[in-house]
Predict the structure.
Amino acid sequence: MQTATGTLSKRRRIFWLVPLIALALPLLTNPYTQFIANAMLIYTLVTLGFSVVIGNLGQLAFANTAFFGIGAYASAIASTSLGLPWLATIPIAGLAGALGGFLASAAALRGIRLYYLAIVTLAFGELMRWFYTHAGALTGGTDGLPVPRGRDFGLALSSGTVQFYVFLAITCLLVAGTVNLLRSRIGRAIIAVRENEIATASLGIPTSQIIVTAFMWSGFIVGIAGAMFALHTGRVFPESFGLTQLIVNFAMVLVGGLGSVVGAVLGAVALTALPEYVRAFPGMEEIFFGVIVMVVLLVMPKGLASLLARFSPIFQQRYHRD
Amino acid sequence: MFLQLTLSGVSQGAIYALIALSLTVVYRSTTIVSFGHGDFVMAGAFLTYVLVVAIGVAFLPASLVAIAVMFLIGVAFSRGLVRPIRGGPHIGLALMSISFGFMLRGIARTVWGREVLPMPRVFDIEPIFIGSVVITGDALFIISIVAVLLVVFFTVLHFTDVGKMVQAVYQSERGARLIGINVERFHNFSWGVGAALGAVAGVLIAPISLLHPDLGASFLIKGFAAMTLGGFGSLAGAVLGGLLLGVAEQYAGAYIDTTLIDITAYLLIIAVLLIRPRGLFGRKVVVKV
């Protein structure tokens, strides 16, 4: 058994080919597909962060767009007001996102779970959006906040290709970080809380703190994705972090497979590319994402990752009960 | 001033109460929180709008048709989309309601476009003056409709056989099953009633506010705030919570800052869950571990 899992995890090293192949991608594509590829990397992180909370931890959360917005605004504010280069705003965005994760889930420390937690996080997200709109001096209000691309450490961050490589490096680091976190004691506790909170608590594990920790990690990586989004779009608006964004994220997590790291990548890649074609008509995007989520829930509740797992055991979700 | 604010608060709060009640009906009978319920409200308003403006039906029949259609949509949603995944995790059920609501919103948008359109005024009730307090026709209309509806609702629930059956299922689904109540059909019916009650709220706001496909989201949060304040799962609490929220918004807007009206509901949710998670009437919600 030991050897079997040993070879399996050795065979999983094949996943490192994915970023290697991706390295060559910008050489082949035009600026538009480049833009989409960058968005895919951003959404990979967003989806992964979301998936940790709703998939691995098993709590309903709506604060994901809040973390995304907090990261984007933290990065934009740090670069406009403090004059920091974009790369230096990354840790700030991550920490701001983690703080957001703490605030959104603080009610968990009071014993609030599932639906109640969902409602608190929903309120938190809408509260943040209200703040972006009304704290005009800091956030530019409805006009949004520009993200200067001039200041960086000798990197031409205005170029889509350079952005792609930087994003790829960040995404790989955070994906690897998440995989490691999920393997660690904390990660196993996160999954234990989902499976049976009372049993987990009876082992002396502080389940409320575990929930907050998972939210903070989610906030951290989604916050960094927000900073990437700010650079990618060049201007941050309150409207980018609303409920439409949220359902898109839900769809990505579900299509990929709840709680699966491979699934997060797949969901983000699949659904960033597709909707470009439905965006032309008002309302089509909503119908598209709504129907996608419904169909996936009915037909394929474990997502694309579970389809892949049928082909090869290397795609099996190690952190998910079947 | 104070009385005037209270009055507009109650009229606004009556709508929140209705939404919170519709959410509670679904939650109490199916243990599902319908995160797409705001869009049921929007769809009710939207259907009324389409019937009145595009087809030219009179307001009253149009609103009755809209409410009936929403009842059927609620039943269809329960039968077709909720039942197949009922055994699964709650996240799936919540996502199902969100995505269904999202689809409704998309349909409204394909018909409506991006514009925000006011509906022609339907009732010309003369405002009533009591001293310095003005009761507008709209407020009078809303408050009286909601009051009648609530009286009928609670009378049916507490004093009829159907109501006793409903209460039995609320108390114990298994017990209800044992005495021969068709719980499946009851769930479908509850979704229908929930959707129809939400639609009534939509019909009531249609003539007095600007309509757009996104209005559901804010009403959903108002409904949640009302439910949380009143006590999650308590029918009377939902109504009281809605009225209190409406009044609180008016006070916050007038005495502190007008922009606070938009976020009173969020602040209320966070404050209640931090201070008294069970709300005013709810049972204890905290998971003891």
